[in-house]
Design brief:
five-stranded antiparallel sheet; 0% helix; seven-stranded mixed sheet; mainly beta
Length: 363
């Protein structure tokens, strides 16, 4: 493998610890890694990375303090002006007519009208024919006049004459006075109510109440430590160890491992960094850039405390010319001030050039 290895940088950020450690001003740390040289520069945002660089970001923030009590409620706004009265509903249909009132009492009979004038007399009927004369008695001897003979029987009455025309009708009598009016019928049932008119427009909204006072600021989050390390894969494929704030431009090897010569087994001389504070190790994050000499690579990263393995680890695999990453945010563990923190790594091959960037966070 070529001895021309790419140099890197490292950064250590200890939050709110001692006077030599400045408090963070943001919730994350961003860096740009040169894909060819492996150089790392800390930037305000990965958007500052240029072509040929890979951006990396690590969260850095204390737990959020509890929310301050809510400010008092603002005064209630004045009531809005009432909306205009809605239009009157349509007239309901005609109610059913009431029952017919009882017949009024019959008025008194008016006085009889004056008798009409008598009509003219009808034309008398024709006189019936005279009946035949009775037979004369024999003439007595002249002498003294004899007694008068019995009158002959009266002849039959002739037929009645035709009736004369009827006289003109007499004038009509004066009309009697009208009877008293009957009592009024019962009032019919009320018709159904008309439909409700449309609702008037809503009145104007009252002025908003005054803003409540701001709640008290919550307490500051706990102090923490962020370690950042970087190396180019070394000349060996076994396990080796380095401090979590290391820069290994040539990669760890049997003859160079963070300025120590160590055997590739835990428990001997373990390279590492003592924690300046008591905290909880929150995560391990690794980025890998396989950028030179064709070949695939798999590397396993573990966090050790005082030379002993913890359950925090992750495995990252890259193909030729590819980038990848891994992380472990589940297997957290507590750290006391002075505990020795070490990164252990084992790579599958030493052929391709793979630049690894490692970050751990403890707060």
């Amino acid at each position: 493998m070529s001895t021309l290895k790419c140099l890197g940088v490292f950064a250590v950020s200890i939050l709110a610890g001692t006077a030599a450690m400045a408090a963070p001003t943001s919730t994350s740390i961003a860096a740009c890694v040169n894909n060819l040289t492996g150089a790392v520069r800390i930037v305000s945002s990965t958007s500052a990375c240029v072509a040929g660089e890979t951006g990396l970001t690590w969260a850095l923030s204390g737990a959020t303090g509890p929310q301050g009590p809510a400010g008092p409620a603002g005064a209630t706004g004045s009531a809005g002006t009432p909306g205009a009265t809605g239009l009157a509903g349509a007239t309901g249909p005609q109610g059913t007519p009431g029952a017919t009132g009882a017949q009024g009492t019959i008025g008194n009979t008016g006085p009889a009208g004056a008798t009409g004038l008598t009509g003219p007399a009808g034309t008398p009927g024709a006189t019936g024919a005279t009946g035949p004369a009775g037979t004369n008695g024999a003439t007595g001897p002249a002498g003294a006049a004899g007694p008068q003979g019995t009158p002959g029987a009266t002849g039959a009455t002739g037929p009645a004459g035709a009736a004369g025309p009827q006289g003109a009708t007499g004038a009509t009598g004066t009309t009697g006075n009208a009877g008293s009016a009957g009592a009024p019928g019962a009032t019919g049932a009320t018709g159904p109510a008309g439909a409700t008119g449309n609702t008037g427009p809503q009145g104007n909204m009252g002025n908003p109440g005054a803003t409540g006072a701001q709640g008290a600021q919550g307490p500051a989050g706990p102090e923490g430590v962020l370690w950042i390390a970087q190396y180019l894969n070394g000349d060996i494929t076994g396990a080796y160890y380095f401090a979590p704030n290391s820069n290994l431009p040539g990669g760890p090897s049997d003859t160079y491992n963070e300025a120590y010569t160590v055997a590739d087994s835990p428990g001997l001389i373990i390279n590492g960094t003592p924690s300046p504070i008591a905290c909880t190790m929150r995560f391990l994050k690794v980025g890998a850039n396989n950028y030179h000499v064709p070949g695939a690579e798999t590397a396993v990263f573990s966090v050790l405390k005082n030379g002993s393995s913890t359950s925090m680890q992750c495995t990252v695999s890259t193909g030729s010319g590819a980038s990848s990453s891994c992380s472990d945010t589940t297997h957290t563990f507590s750290v006391a001030a002075g505990d020795f923190i070490t990164i252990e790594t084992t790579q599958s091959t030493a052929v391709p050039y793979v630049m690894y960037s490692i970050a751990t966070d403890c707060y």
